[in-house]
Amino acid sequence: MFTTGSKWFFGLGLVSLALAAAYGWTTGGNGLGPLTAGYKGGVGDHLGYGLLLSIASVAIFLGIVSVATLDAAPSALAE
Asked: How many angstroms separate the most distant Cα atoms in the chain?
């Protein structure tokens, strides 16, 4: 079951991934570069792209932690 905090973190992660791809294309990236994190082409501005990817990875990790701990719900802690 997805908790409120995990939904927020997963949403933030997905939006950050979409923004990273859009940022990579608009700053000079080509083709598949922003989708493959630079493996199959350029990503444009590396600093902004890397920051957005970092935000996305941290947010998705926190979403997984939030699901695992059930947002520290008292009922889950009681069990």
From this structure: 53
